Amino acid sequence: MNEYQYNKITPKIIEHLKEIAPKRVLVGDEINDDFSHDEMAIYGKAKPEVLVETLTTEEVAAVMKICNENKIPVTPSGARTGLVGGAVSIGGGVMISMTKMNKILGYDKENFVVKIQSGVLLNDLAQDAEKQGLLYPPDPGEKFATVGGNVATNAGGMRAVKYGCTRDYVRAMTVVLPTGEIVNLGATVSKTSSGYSLLNLMVGSEGTLGIITELTLKIIPAPKSVISLIIPYENLEDCIATVPKFFMNHLNPQALEFMEKEVVMDTEKFLGKQVYPKEMEGIEVGAYLLATFDGNSEEELEDIIEQAAEIVVEAGAIDVLVADTPALKKDAWSVRGALLEAIEADTTLLDECDVVVPINKIAEFLTYTKSLESESDFRVKSFGHAGDGNLHIYTCSNDMELDEFKKQVAVFMDKVYAKATEYGGMISGEHGIGHGKMDYLAESLGPVQMRVMEEIKKVFDPNMILNPGKICYKL
Amino acid sequence: MDILVCIKQVPASNKVEVDPVTGVLLRNGADSKMNPYDLYALETALQIREHTGGIISVISMGPPQAKAVIREAFAMGADKGALLSDRRFGGADVLATSYTLAQGIQKMGNFDLILCGKQTTDGDTAQVGSEVSEWLNIPSVSNVRKITKVEKDGITIEMDLPNELEIAKVAYPCLLSADKDIFQPRLPSYVKKMKTKDREIKVYSLDDMGDKDESHYGLNGSPTQVKRIFPPESNDHREVWNDDGTVIADKLFHMISELKFI
C-alpha cells in the first residue's frame, strides 16, 4: 500500500533501550496483553515487540533517536482508554508508555497555569487543582485517561459547552519529535502571533507528530457554587429543542448532556441505584437533560436556576429536579459518568461513533440513527453532549457473529457518517481517528486534505516511524 | 393515611464549631442542608403515600432559617409543615428535644405513622426517634431498612439488628426510624417548589405547647451535661504489606472479613 519500510528490533537495540531505561524495558511475553488494545477491541489487537516505560523527556528522546536511526515504529501510549485504536501498535516496534511520567510539577497561581508531566491522570489533576481552589475545566467522561492523551485527541467532555475543549487550555508543551529532538512549543502567556502554531498542530495529532512529555495548562479559579439540574422530558425532540433557548437567554450552562431513558435505566441497573425518575405526575419520561450551572455566589446561582427552570418548563419539560448538595450532584452525574461503562459491561460486541452535528440537528440525527436499528441485528444506544452536538452512538450486540457484526456495522456507519457530513458535522468530536475511523475521515474531508495531512506528517517524521498508519495514511 | 416526618436542618459540612461554654453546636443557617437520614424517612413517606394516598406533614425544630428544610420537603412532595422555633428550645439534649417534638406533634394533630431518620449527622445520637415514641406512648421500630407491606391495620417492616434481621408488623399509630438506603430519596422538584412557595409554614413557640413549663425545654430541660465536644480524630492509619501475592490475598481476605466488608 505504501513505500514506508520498517526494520525489526535486534537484540542490540534492546540492549541500548535497556541502558536508557534500566529495568523498564519489557520484551515479548513480558508485555501484558493490555498493551495490545485500547477500549475498543473491535478494531483489532496488535502487541508491540518492546515496551519502554520512560521517566523523563530525555529518556523519551533517547528512545526516539535510536528508533529513528533504525527505522523502527514507535507508538506512544497513555492510559489506553482510547476508542479508535490510536495507541495500538499496528506497525509493531516499540511502545513508549507515559504512565510513569505522572508528576504534577507545580502551579503558577499568578499566571493561572499548572505544569505537569503528560502521564498525569485527568482525575488526579482535577482533584489536585480542586484542593488549590482551582479548576482545570476540560472534563472528558473518562477520568482515568492521561492528560497527554486528552491533548493528543483534543478531548472535550462535559464542560466543553461553556469552557471549551482541551486545546483551549494548552499554553505550552515539551515535545519529543520523531527524530529525537526536544522542542518547547508555546509559552505561559495567553496571546501569541508568532508564526505557525506548532503547538496547536500537536494538539489532536494523536501521537503521530511528536510525543508530548510535559504540558503547561491554563487553569481558572474554581467557581464558588455549582448546581446540577435533572430535567425530564416526555420525548427527545422536546428535550433537544430546549438547548438553544438556554443560550438565547444568556444562560451558560457549564455542562448540558442528554440521555434517553433506556440508557439511563440500563446504567442505573449497572450501578445498583435509582436516581432519575421514570414517570412523573403520570407522564412517562422519554429523555433527560442533565445541566450544570456555576456561579460566583449562591444568590447569583439561585437566579440562574430560576431562569433556567422557567425556560425548560415553558419548553415542555415535565419538571426540573435540583441537585444542590455534593452528594446529590455526585448521584446525578454518576449515571452520566457510567453510561459507557454500563454499555461495555452488558455488551460483547461493541462499536461506536463520535460525530458532531449542529445542535439544531441533534434530534433529527438521532431519529435517523435509531431508524437504522430496524435494518440491523444490533441495538443502537446513544447519549451525548447536547450543548455542542457531540453524540456518542453505540452499536451493541451479544449474539451476533463477529464478521456479520462488522459487516452490518460498516453499512450502518457509512450511512451515519454520510448523514453527519450532510448536516455539516464532523467525524469525531473528541475520540479521534486512530486507525479505526480513517476511511470515514477520508470520505468526509476528501483527498486534498488527507494528502496535506500526510505531507505535514512527513515534515515532522521523515521516516514515518511515529505511530504509523494512523489518521491520514494506511500501512 | 396521615403521615408525619420529623426533619432537621444540619450543617452541610462536617466542620462544625462548638460553643466553648455550653458545648452546644453553633449553627450557621447559610451552610446547611436537610439531615441526609431524614431524606430517607421523607422518601419512605412519599412511597407509602403513592400506594395508600393521604397527607404527609413534616415537623422540624430549630431557628427560623430551618424553614428552608420544610420548603425543601414541600419541593419533594410533602403537603404540610410546621416549625418549632423558640429561643427557649435552644441547647436541648435528646430528652428535651424529643419532649419538645412530642409536644409539637400533639399540637399538629393525630398521625397514623411517624417517620424519622435513623440519626442526624450533627448530633449522631440516634435516640430522638425512639424517645419521641415514648413520650407519645406509641410503639417504635429503629433501623428500618425495608417496608414489606402496608395494610390498613399495620405496616410490616424489616429491622436491621446487629446479628439478625427482624420482620415485624406494627399497628398504627407507630413511629419508624428509617435506615440509609431504604429508598433512594428523590430530588427536590422546581415545579413543586414554585407551586408551594407561598404555602404556610406554621411556627410554634413554647407558648403554643400543651405543657408550658419552661423547665422541660431547652438547656433547662436537658439533664445531659456536655463536658467537651470535639470532632473525632481522623484515622489515617495505613498498613503496607510486602509479601507473596497469595499470602497478601489471604491476609486481605481475612482483614476485610473481620471488618465485615464481606
Explain how this protein is built.
The complex is a heterodimer of chains A (475) and B (262). Chain A is α+β, with helices and mostly antiparallel strands and 475 residues long. Among the domains of chain A are: 104-221, Uridine Diphospho-n-acetylenolpyruvylglucosamine Reductase, domain 3, CATH 3.30.465.10; 225-340, Alpha-Beta Plaits; 347-431, Alpha-Beta Plaits. Chain A has helices spanning 11-20, 57-69, 122-131, 147-153, 160-163, 198-202, 236-241, 243-248, 261-271, 298-314, 326-337, 339-345, 362-371, 402-422, 438-445, 447-460; strands at residues 25-27, 50-53, 74-77, 94-97, 104-108, 113-117, 134-135, 170-176, 182-186, 211-218, 220-221, 225-233, 255-260, 279-280, 283-284, 287-295, 321-323, 349-353, 379-385, 390-397. Chain B is an alpha/beta fold and 262 residues long. Chain B has a single domain (2-230), classed as HUPs (Rossmann fold, 3-Layer(aba) Sandwich), CATH 3.40.50.620. Helix content of chain B is 27%, strand content 25%. Chain B has 6 helices and 13 strands. Chain B has helices spanning 36-52, 67-76, 94-108, 128-136, 190-195, 245-258; strands at 2-6, 9-11, 17-18, 25-26, 32-34, 55-61, 80-84, 113-117, 140-151, 154-160, 165-171, 174-178, 202-204. In chain B, strand 6 (55-61), helix 2 (67-76) and strand 7 (80-84) form a beta-alpha-beta unit. In chain B, helix 3 (94-108) crosses helix 4. The longest helix of chain B is centred in the first third of the chain and has 17 residues, at 36-52. The two termini of chain B are 39 Å apart. The mean pLDDT of chain B is 90.
Keywords:
heterodimer; A: 475 residues; alpha+beta; Uridine Diphospho-n-acetylenolpyruvylglucosamine Reductase, domain 3; Alpha-Beta Plaits; seven-stranded antiparallel β-sheet; five-stranded antiparallel β-sheet; 16 helices; 20 strands; globular; B: 262 residues; alpha/beta; Rossmann fold; nine-stranded mixed β-sheet; two-stranded antiparallel sheet; 6 helices
